[in-house]
Specification:
The structure holds two protein chains of two kinds. By secondary structure, chain A is an alpha+beta fold. Chain A is built from eleven helices and 14 strands. Chain A has a six-stranded mixed β-sheet with strand order 1-3-2-6-5-4. In chain A, strands 8-10-11-13-12 form a five-stranded mixed β-sheet. Chain A has a three-stranded antiparallel β-sheet with strand order 7-9-14, with no helix packed on it. In chain A, strand 5 and strand 6 form a beta hairpin. The longest helix of chain A is centred in the N-terminal third of the chain and has 58 residues. Chain A is rod-shaped. Chain B contains nine helices and 13 strands. Chain B is an alpha/beta fold. Classes of the chains: A alpha+beta, B alpha/beta. At the A-B interface, helix 4 of A face helix 1 of B.
Chain lengths: ~525, ~220
């Protein structure tokens, strides 16, 4: 199965670090911004006070010089003072509470006539808000003001100064964290690579990650698990061997004594046809029991992996294994025909599609040759047993360049290119199976009818052999036009020698490159 | 010919013994490694059928000891172990043949004949012996196309001498080949059967080596 999206450890780590940084830095920034804003406003207010007092001081110093002519009426002209934008100042003469005459003011002064009380205040003049400070001393009123929007612009500038470096640092931290996580997770990647390269039945412990403190316990547990699994498989193998001995020995005794009895009757020239027939039937029963026992033991071995042990069949031997299996089935069918009440066994047509432009020797099948022969024989035996009519049973061996339509293979395929695979297709014209029966047919001891044909394990064994190699067995029900059953055995192919060690499936493109 | 059956299952061993006797062999049964050792030490055997899983050890251990002691007794392993690894181990230890259970009695007999043929250096189971022809596989002697009727013991005696291929066999060894471990047999029975064989096949067929025993005449061996 492919890993589910969003389960990336690296992504989790990076997102965690980013989230932590964002939350912490945002809190700090918010706190700093609020504090800075207050400090800035306070500082600007202090500046207003300082400016006002400074102007008041200057006015105080100028007043004695003017006192000799103090009786003169103030000039109607207001002295205009140049000031920077956003700052205003006005000096007025206070004659009474209602008669306040400006003496001097900055060019952009908003006019402070409306201000009634000394101290801080706000006015709105010309659509702009001002922060004001008024000081009255010795009949002189000095008012200074800052434009609020200029102040806010200053605050915003400070805020940008804070936020922009933070954002840049955040992006940089993200990239650095991603890179650091990639570096830090390399031992995990090496562990994954070693595990993916590991042969299915390898008994050696996993080495990658043992030198990393955080991974060592995981690798230790993994090796412990592998050890227990290997021990379980070994017990299974021993059990199979013991079962083989325990079951075969009494069967051998029965078979031997039946043969001795047959021999004695034969030597004695005894005219006891019933005894001969009974012994013959007993012999058939023993043969059937023997076949079932062998199938059971083979199934146990395939399921425990004991039958494979990393064995493979060279490509050059595939066609001969196929022909040998077909020949065995033909022979078996010929022997069984008289017992089935038929004079002639069904014909078996075999076809081998040579994989031009490639040769068979370029491939290797990850299935032991005896198991391949056994799987094909089981399929052809089934087909010949159930076939009806004069048309022959068709058996075909072919090379397919398309992707394996097997669930088992999906977890094993590491490349995106379609791997090459071997197809064994057996088609008969018998009564066939329905789609539901096809799904049941690979279950142990499943038989369509109660007829004592076979052990009910043949297709199960084929399926297990296919699955152990990453392939599959598909049973296709016949149609009205083409009745019968089609069995397709698909097995992945490897490049001879070169990719065997890695256990990678072979692609058509790789083969063309090699050839 | 005298065959030692090393098999712990009495049912199987009895079946094999009866089957072999029906084919003209003489057989004795050993149910353990210890019994097999004492049989081999006490009697003369032409071949051995050896099971592997025995109560007091593995049959391969016994075979290894025999081969280490340069004992050339032909051995056929008859076992339920059918893995390639088991067969390889058997042949590497020194077995001459390997058959898995359950087996066909006819196949076992034919394999035994092949084993004995190779052991005595014969190319064929059919031997020309002057005017006689001996078919070891069919336990049959013919003269001019006519079967010479031989009693079971007489055939066993002749087969043992043929298998010895010119070596002198003592009366005791011939007794083993005829009767196996049967105890209630007269001491002069071998001489009686030799006499009967000479009468049926000719006086010069079996040569008496005074003080040692009997051997097949050189004319028969060179045929």
């Amino acid at each position: 199965m492919k890993p589910a999206a969003g389960k990336s450890l690296r992504l989790r780590l990076v997102l965690g670090v980013c989230l932590t940084m964002c939350v912490l830095w945002s809190s700090v920034a918010a706190w700093m911004f609020t504090s800075m804003r207050q400090e800035l406003h306070s500082m600007l207010d202090d500046r207003l006070i300082a400016s006002t007092r400074m102007v008041a001081g200057v006015v105080q110093q100028l007043q004695p010089a003017q006192q000799p002519g103090a009786s003169r009426a103030p000039s109607a002209d207001i002295l205009s003072v140049i000031a920077r934008d956003g700052v205003a100042c006005e000096v007025s003469l206070v004659r009474s509470e209602v008669d306040i005459r400006p003496l001097a003011q900055t060019a952009n002064s908003p006019g402070f006539g409306s201000l009634e009380t000394p101290g801080f205040g706000h006015i709105l003049k010309g659509g702009k808000a001002w922060r004001t400070y008024v000081l009255e001393e010795n009949g002189i009123r000095i008012a200074t003001a800052d434009r609020i929007d200029v102040r806010e612009h200053l605050v915003e500038s400070f805020a940008y100064t804070l936020i922009l470096p933070f954002l840049a640092a955040l992006v940089g931290s993200l990239l650095l964290t991603w890179w650091c996580c990639t570096l830090g997770l390399r031992p995990l990647q090496r562990l994954q690579q070693e595990l993916s390269r590991r042969p299915p039945r390898a008994s050696s412990p996993v080495r990658a990650g043992q030198d990393v403190v955080e991974l060592a316990p995981l690798v230790l547990s993994l090796n412990d698990l592998l050890g227990r699994m290997n021990a379980a498989i070994e017990r299974e193998r021993r059990w199979t061997a013991d079962a083989a001995h325990e079951l075969r020995t009494p069967l051998t005794a029965i078979k031997t004594h039946v043969q001795v009895a047959q021999l004695v009757l034969e030597r004695a020239g005894s005219a006891l046809p019933q005894a001969q027939a009974a012994l013959q039937q007993a012999g058939l029963g023993i043969t059937h029991m023997h076949a079932t026992l062998e199938h059971l033991l083979l199934l146990a071995r395939v399921e425990s992996g004991a039958a494979q042990q990393g064995a493979s069949t060279p490509g050059a031997a595939l066609a001969s294994a196929f022909e040998q299996a077909c020949a065995q089935s033909r022979h078996q069918a010929a022997l069984a025909a008289p017992a089935a009440g038929s004079a002639v066994a069904p014909a078996l047509d075999i076809a081998i599609d040579h994989p031009a432009p490639w040769g068979w020797e370029q491939f290797e099948l990850p299935v032991a040759a005896p198991l391949l022969t056994c799987a094909i024989t089981n399929l052809t035996d089934n087909a010949l047993r159930h076939h009806q009519g004069r048309a022959p049973v068709s058996a075909r061996l072919a090379l397919c360049a398309e992707a394996l339509p097997c669930a088992a293979r999906e977890g094993m395929a590491s490349g995106t290119a379609a791997p090459m695979h071997l197809l064994v297709r057996i088609a008969d014209r018998g009564p066939g199976l329905t789609a539901e029966e096809c799904a049941l047919a690979t279950q142990r001891f499943w038989r369509k009818s109660s007829a004592p044909h076979g052990s009910g394990l043949g297709l199960t064994i084929v399926q297990r052999i296919a699955e152990s190699a990453g392939g599959c067995l598909r049973l296709l029900p016949g149609t009205a036009q083409e009745p019968g059953l089609v069995a397709e055995l698909r097995l992945p192919l490897l490049a001879a020698g070169t990719q065997m060690a890695q256990g990678l499936p072979l692609t058509g493109a790789q083969l063309l490159t090699q050839s | 010919m005298h065959i030692l059956i090393v098999e712990d299952s009495a049912l199987v061993a009895d079946g094999i013994k009866t089957g072999l006797e029906l084919h003209g062999f003489t057989a004795d049964i050993a149910a353990s490694l210890a019994q097999a050792r004492s049989h081999i030490a006490a009697s003369h055997f032409e071949a051995c059928i050896l099971d592997l899983g025995l109560p007091d050890g593995d049959g391969l251990r016994l075979l290894g000891q025999w081969r280490a002691a340069a004992r050339q007794l032909p051995v056929l392993i008859l076992s339920a172990r059918d893995r390639i690894e088991d067969k390889v181990a058997g042949f590497q230890t020194g077995t001459d043949d390997y058959l898995t259970k359950p087996f066909d009695l006819t196949e076992l007999v034919l394999r035994l004949h092949a084993l004995l043929r190779r052991a005595s250096g014969r190319a064929s189971d059919r031997l020309d012996f002057g005017s006689f022809e001996i078919d070891m596989a069919r336990a049959q002697v013919t003269r001019g196309g006519q079967t010479v009727e031989l009693a079971r013991r007489e055939w066993a005696l002749l087969a043992a001498l043929v298998q010895a291929n010119g070596r002198v066999l003592s009366a005791g060894q011939l007794h083993d080949s005829l009767y196996g471990a049967e105890l209630d047999v007269g001491s002069n029975t071998v001489n009686v059967h030799v006499h009967h064989l000479r009468r049926k096949l000719g006086q010069d067929v079996i040569e008496t080596v005074r003080g040692l025993g009997f051997r097949l005449h050189a004319r028969a061996r060179s045929a």
